[in-house]
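Long-time lurker, first post. I've been practising inverse folding by hand and with some scripts of my own, and I keep getting stuck on stretches where the structure tokens seem ambiguous. Below is the full token string for one chain I'm working on. Before anyone asks, I'm not after the true native sequence, just a reasonable design that respects the backbone. If someone could post their per-position residues I'd love to compare against what I wrote down in my notebook.
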């Protein structure tokens, strides 16, 4: 933990891609148990901000602190830090030549050095967690998109992370498959998992999030209670965005 009790702290984060200034002085603090939903128009920097938390995108300027340590310090073992941060992407990133169980156990064995028996037991626990224990021997190609995304969630959870990051995890799914993924995420919320979620699912952001961040043009425009922002946004840009998506 940081001295202020936060799990994650981003301080004055700037990110350039060439001449494109994508993040412009971002400050964010995430406390244990927070469910932070990040919304905003395409190109506003949401995914870049999310990927900065685990340094999949290294900030051009600024500091990232996780669990009390500055992970932007060049002396930090970033790979070790990432074992404590689970991430689920829009694309499922499952290995098609491996069955579901092996997809979940791979990092447990290769990264954590876990034995085969223990890894299989943990994989079973997490597949059960997302309602897919019966699919352990199936291959990704035989699963629906929603099922593949739930396997990806189980794979991340198997590492026993302190924080989960979700990057538009339902945007590639057919509408009827979205609910099963959101239900799996809701269970994590109920269990107290700390989460940062980039999403277009406004109902999820409003009902499940403990905080809502609205981003536009690389800046945080509003940051506060989701229901208050949805019901009475203070900034004109937030009002205009919500009027188009609600």
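-- Answer (accepted) --
I ran through it position by position. Result:
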């Amino acid at each position: 933990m940081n001295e202020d009790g936060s799990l994650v702290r981003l301080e004055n984060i700037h990110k350039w891609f060439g001449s494109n200034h994508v993040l412009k002085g971002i400050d964010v603090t995430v406390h244990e148990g927070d469910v932070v939903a990040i919304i905003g128009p395409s190109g506003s920097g949401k995914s870049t901000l999310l990927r900065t938390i685990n340094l999949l995108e290294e900030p051009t300027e600024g500091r990232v602190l996780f669990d009390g340590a500055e992970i932007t310090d060049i002396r930090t073992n970033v790979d070790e830090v990432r074992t404590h941060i689970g991430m689920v992407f829009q694309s499922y990133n499952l290995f098609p030549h491996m069955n579901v169980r092996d997809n979940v156990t791979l990092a447990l064995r290769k990264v954590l050095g876990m034995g085969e028996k223990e890894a299989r037991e943990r994989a079973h626990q997490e597949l059960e967690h997302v309602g897919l224990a019966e699919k352990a021997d199936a291959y990704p190609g035989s699963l629906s998109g929603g099922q593949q995304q739930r396997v990806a969630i189980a794979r991340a959870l198997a590492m026993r992370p302190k924080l989960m990051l979700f990057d538009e995890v339902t945007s590639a799914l057919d509408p009827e498959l979205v609910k099963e993924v959101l239900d799996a995420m809701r269970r994590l919320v109920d269990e107290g998992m700390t989460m940062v979620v980039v999403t277009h699912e406004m109902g999820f952001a409003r009902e499940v999030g403990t905080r809502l961040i609205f981003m536009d043009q690389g800046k945080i425009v509003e940051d506060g209670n989701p229901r208050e922002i949805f019901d009475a946004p203070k900034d004109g840009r937030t009002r205009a965005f919500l009027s188009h998506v609600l």
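A couple of notes from the structure itself: Residues 11 and 27 are 5 Å apart (CA to CA). The first strand starts at residue 6 and ends at 17. Happy to go over any region you disagree with.
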